[in-house]
Amino acid sequence: MLRAVRLPCRAQNITAPCRVRRITSTPTAGPANSFPKEPTAHGVLPSSQSPILSTLKFFNSVTGDGTQIPTYRVLDSVGQPLEGATVPEEIGEAMARRMYESMVQLPIIDNLMYNVQRQGKLAFYMTHYGEEATLIGSAAALANDDEVLGQYRELGVLMWRGFTLADMMNSSFGNCEDPCSRGKQMPMHFGSRKHHFHMISSPLATQIPQAAGVAFALRRDPSRRGKNCAVVYFGEGAASEGDFHAGMLFASTIPSPTLFIARNNGFAISTPANEQYYGDGIAARGPGYGMHTIRVDGNDVLAVYNAVKEARRLCIDEGRGVLVEAMTYRVGHHSTSDDSFAYRPRQEVEDRKRLDNPLARFRLFLEARGWWSAEEDDALRARLKDEVLKAFKKAEALPKPELREMFEQVYGGEEPWTLREQREELGRLLKKYGDVWEPWKTELKKHKGAGKELMDTKP
Ligand SMILES: Cc1ncc(C[n+]2csc(CCOP(=O)(O)OP(=O)(O)O)c2C)c(N)n1
Ligand SMILES: [Mg+2]
């Protein structure tokens, strides 16, 4: 009989899904590849190539032998290539250094932004600690004009494409230079047409069916068909939404070249992954939709690079969805609105930081090739800290956009009458109270033009 044995999460390797199946075969249950081979002389079913058997047998595994789906890895925990693993040839010294520098930059940004948010200078922030290899390895394997639809923890992908520190800071402050939404979005809701990075929308999983639609549009566009794919990032928690299944079905049946990248970081805020699925993680769902699928060590930047590069090739060549599940661990709190020590032990996090640390592994790889040194590491960190702090101070000092911008570029085309009415009403209220009511006086001073452009408009 097949029995799924649930182990307490902490007893397991967290980078693997928190459930282990132990299979004992009986005549009626077992792995899919142990179906008895009977002569196929029993006829055929309509709409199916399924062989017909007389043996009553259930199955509950996609690997064929009942074990969990394996995880692809290139570097061991001390940065040395595993025997038989392929180190991508195109990752020479320059490219490897660039990837490492991009990985190091993320926690430096995270440290500053997290702390200034705690000081009340920013509304909100989400860190990327632990997921540096998943983000940079995948970004490096894509073409910079593949359309990316992220969840909210993919800043590294956008910055890899040239979104600058200034862009990132201005967007976080929603100031008058915010290139994403001119202050209309929450922090972390980046988007950049120039970088083919669609605006983040935080209702979970909405980006997944949208990505399948974007990929369909790519397929219909002669200038991009066979050249680009849509890439969608999502957490394993978001994969519990119905929209995940809608997107997967669309991409496999229509079909559309959609590259699904699941960041399985072990948590959806306080809900651990083992409470989110009873099957073998997210990867097990790919074959259900007839998709090429791989599970990869998300803390190994070279494995992520190889897996995403090949996934992208398959996706574009075959014009249909491909699924990558990157196994990693969310080292930081979910966001600045969360304290994860309320639901996981500090020690677990400390252990995870050390074990298979994505930055340490890649640095050791570089050092072993003579491509990096301790001195260069110190210099890089000092330079990045300085650059991040300077960009932060500059963005902090800039005023917020003119108030009128709140109503602009919300919809394409003609302005709806509702927005016009609201803008006119705000103008009337500002005229009446803007100079006398203290909270408004203070707030108006933060905006370019202090709201005058709204007060002066004639209804
Ligand atoms: C539809 C919806 N439900 C709930 C939330 C609240 N929420 C925000 S993030 C999150 C957890 C998502 O976890 P996961 O997809 O694993 O991504 P991670 O934060 O781990 O990167 C939840 C429940 C939301 N934003 N949208
Ligand atoms: Mg998660």
From TrEMBL:
Catalytic function, reaction form: N(6)-[(R)-lipoyl]-L-lysyl-[protein] + 3-methyl-2-oxobutanoate + H(+) = N(6)-[(R)-S(8)-2-methylpropanoyldihydrolipoyl]-L-lysyl-[protein] + CO2
Residue ranges constituting the Dehydrogenase E1 component domain according to the UniProt record: 101-402
UniProtKB keywords: Oxidoreductase, Thiamine pyrophosphate
Cofactor: thiamine diphosphate
Domain of life of the native organism: Eukaryota
InterPro entries given in the database record: Alpha-ketoacid_DH_E1_comp, DH_E1, THDP-binding
Pfam families assigned: E1_dh
EC number of the protein: 1.2.4.4
Keyword Nucleotidyltransferase: no
Family: Belongs to the BCKDHA family.
Function, in words: The branched-chain alpha-keto dehydrogenase complex catalyzes the overall conversion of alpha-keto acids to acyl-CoA and CO(2). It contains multiple copies of three enzymatic components: branched-chain alpha-keto acid decarboxylase (E1), lipoamide acyltransferase (E2) and lipoamide dehydrogenase (E3).
Stated name of the protein: 2-oxoisovalerate dehydrogenase subunit alpha
Organism: Rhodofomes roseus
